[in-house]
Amino acid sequence: MVPVTYETGDWRGWRDAAETALYGPGGFYRRPEGPAGHFRTSVHASGLFAAAVAELLTSTAGSLGLEEPALIDVGAGRGELLTGVLAALPPGLSVRAYAVERADRPADLDPRIEWTAEIPQGLDGLLFANEWLDNVPVDVAEVDADGVIRRVLVREDGEERLGDEVTGADADWLARWWPLGEPGTRAEIGRPRDEAWAAAAGSLASGLAVAVDYAHTAGARPPFGTLTGFRDGREVRPVPDGSCDITAHVALDACAAPGGAELVGQREALRRLGVSGERPPLALASSDPAGYVRALSRAGEAAELTAKGGLGDFTWLMQRVGRPLRDWSA
Q1: Three-state DSSP class for 256?
Q2: How far apart are CA 327 and CA 325, in angstroms?
Q3: pLDDT 10s digits, 154-201
Q4: For 86-115, what is each residue's pLDDT tens digit?
Q5: Which residues have CB under 8 Å from 283's CB, separation 6+?
Q6: In angstroms, rounded to a whole number, what is the distance separating the alpha carbons of residues 136 and 247?
Q7: Strand, helix or coil at 95?
Q8: Do strands 204-213 and 228-231 pair parallel, antiparallel, or not at all (unpaired)?
Q9: Which of 175, 254, 271, 246 lies closest to 215 in space, CA to CA?
Q10: Which of 96, 149, 162, 312 has a CA-to-CA distance to 268 between 20 and 30 Å?
């Protein structure tokens, strides 16, 4: 690639281009079909995921002595997770539910859910962000033939070229979290995600903040980055024209760096919350055939949520905020 001056003509950094493509007028996440029209998340795969979040909310409320905990869903899509959690809550638990999303409120959404474009501040409870940070736009860096780390520029048609050298806070972030060496190697500059997560977790007065995403950690960064697109259920070339999702895996260890956070795989996180892919005993088929079929279906759904090479590869960032919580991992 030939270096050019950053931000000239139709060429923009990936962060700016993705922001417009995803969230601008006519952007991908403002389309009427919503994310579920293009890819399947844990929320869409099984109601067991919402039930697990309901269990986590109940545990958090009990640990803090909250009679009416808040549940804040950041990157709420069309409200699918909140709808499922409200249906799975134990009788008698009142919840203040907030869907944080830039798209318009769905017409048929449960009236108990407050729809907002901004994360509410100062609440006590559970903040949950499922596959949100991977859609916080970031710039991409690449090492040129001379060993200089430059910002990758992109046109609306997806064509790329190299721009100015990466300097300042972005260069410092790369040096600490994603060092680059050989020409042609690439990285996504995750500093905006660190800041977005710090603001989200910091919005709670007390409780638990959870981010769930495909992630990588220091020592195992992908040498050419993970930037990609999704459209109609298929992975496609990332093109910042609003026609596809633009996503990249998250350096969750950098987001968790300020302290007080735990990183745990989805398989283990869901196991702690009572979701297991173990098949029911065959004896149940004789004593309770209908119950066996239900348990078998549940085990199949749980297996999908925890499968290696699939949804089970997600990582959960668990960050306690404010007053101490009972150890939920017991």
Answers
A1: coil
A2: 6
A3: 999 999 999 999 999 999 999 999 999 999 999 999 999 999 999 999
A4: 999 999 899 999 999 998 999 999 999 999
A5: none
A6: 8
A7: coil
A8: unpaired
A9: 254
A10: 96
